[in-house]
Amino acid sequence: MLAINREQLGYIPEERGGEVTGPLVVIDRQPGTQQAIRIDCSKLGSGAWSIPSQVEHLRFETKAKFILAIETASLFQRLVHHRYYETARCILISMSGVPTRACRRFIRRLADDQRLPVLAFTDGDPYGYCNIYRTLKVGSGQAAHINRFFCVPQAHYLGVTPQDIKDYDLEDAPHPLDAVDIKRARDALKNDPFIKHHKEWQLALQQMIALGVRIEQQAFAKHGLNFVLETYLPQKLKKGVFLP
Amino acid sequence: MLAINREQLGYIPEERGGEVTGPLVVIDRQPGTQQAIRIDCSKLGSGAWSIPSQVEHLRFETKAKFILAIETASLFQRLVHHRYYETARCILISMSGVPTRACRRFIRRLADDQRLPVLAFTDGDPYGYCNIYRTLKVGSGQAAHINRFFCVPQAHYLGVTPQDIKDYDLEDAPHPLDAVDIKRARDALKNDPFIKHHKEWQLALQQMIALGVRIEQQAFAKHGLNFVLETYLPQKLKKGVFLP
């Protein structure tokens, strides 16, 4: 096996995916001319820069303090709308569900290059924990031989945690876990080496199964549409306690 | 009912989706300051501008001759990589499957404002015809009352058509239609007012059922990886015969 990946060989993979905005300059090359071009991700209006499928050649300049990787496009849009990336001095990345290879590799290279912590913010459910966050952090089960390129070991999990249900008075907002959620959580507890490696995740999944509920990112809207950016995120960041 | 849509009321909808590149300047407003900002979609390197969820306020400047809306991110990436938007003087839009409301509304506003024709390029299968293209052109079945905002009546269908299988010698490349494809085609022939309105689409679906095959956009790769941009697209554009 060659110790390089498909993207390094110049193959154009299927997957694009992921959008980025905030105080970041990406130095890319123009297709065709190969001239260097600077893309200022803070000057894209209400849109964002969509991450290309090949990211190995990108270079970065930023004064951000961390990267916030977000599950849903709607929350990403809300944070962009309120310029949360200025308030918090962070780079916002929308994963739109399970992050693609390109999205993970982009976050990894950016985090390595600029020595940035990475925080993930997903719905509080087994899919958010065991599929989205797990894939971001350690890669996908199907591609074990190249996961070391397509994972973000410096990622930590900000929320939504089962503990947040209690801390933020969300008991009435969550949806009951359905059978497929419970099965996913139990399978992960039994079989997923990542979950089995981290007692904190085992406790979180057990707490979620015991509570019997899941919490979507928008559940905080019961406290006001901007509660998540004005209160929840600042408090969680100040506290600085994240799941591994 | 008010004759306005959710986006016009300032509601932030779930859906983002769609990426744009090519000879287009989008005039957006910076979130927060509301200052006008010009986004040159030809200067985004190997990436693209991701379309925000609200597009009503956008203004446009372009010298492009048409808009090419593409189903798959991989073909979009290949066209970007080879700067096809310069060769063909077109704006490229990646729909990534069935286009979201935001993506359709963006294409509609851009096409109306700049009087541009819109051509759609999807896989040649019932899903590409009856879901992706149909939703682009006339909107989704679920949102009949607002479809007049979220559809692109000026769209025409470039390919991949069943006739292309013969014209481009693809008989050995296609995959057989599976049961769900055949059911989708038959349902559309029987129940979809859009298909029932256009004899050309009825003939295309019947031809596809008779051939028993589907053709993916990448099927052209049997003639070389760049056949689609060097031969197929130029020939189809020159011929100028599109499905309605």
Describe this structure in words.
The structure is a homodimer of 244-residue chains. Chain A is of the alpha/beta class. The first copy, chain A, has helices at 73-81, 84-87, 101-114, 126-138, 162-167, 179-191, 193-197, 199-211, 227-239; strands spanning 19-21, 24-29, 36-40, 48-50, 59-62, 66-70, 90-94, 118-121, 155-159, 175-176, 213-214. In chain A, the strands form three sheets. The first copy, chain A, has a six-stranded mixed β-sheet with strand order 4-1-7-6-8-9, sandwiched between helices. In chain A, strands 3-2-5 form a three-stranded antiparallel β-sheet. Chain A has a two-stranded antiparallel sheet with strand order 10-11. In chain A, helix 6 (179-191) packs antiparallel against helix 8. Strand 4 of chain A pairs antiparallel with strand 4 of chain B.
Q: What are the defining features of this structure?
A:
homodimer; 244 residues; alpha/beta; six-stranded mixed β-sheet; three-stranded antiparallel β-sheet; 11 strands; 37% helix; 18% strand; globular
Distance between the termini of chain A: 31 Å
What is the spatial order of strands in the main beta sheet of chain A? 4-1-7-6-8-9
Specify the number of helices of chain A. Answer: 9
What assembly state would you assign to the polypeptide chains in this entry?
homodimer
- Secondary-structure-based class of chain A equals alpha/beta
Q: Averaging pLDDT over every residue of chain A, what do you get? A: 91
**3D shape of chain A:** globular
Largest interface: A-B, 40 and 40 residues
Q: List how many beta strands of chain A DSSP finds.
A: 11
Alpha carbon gyration radius of chain A: 18 Å
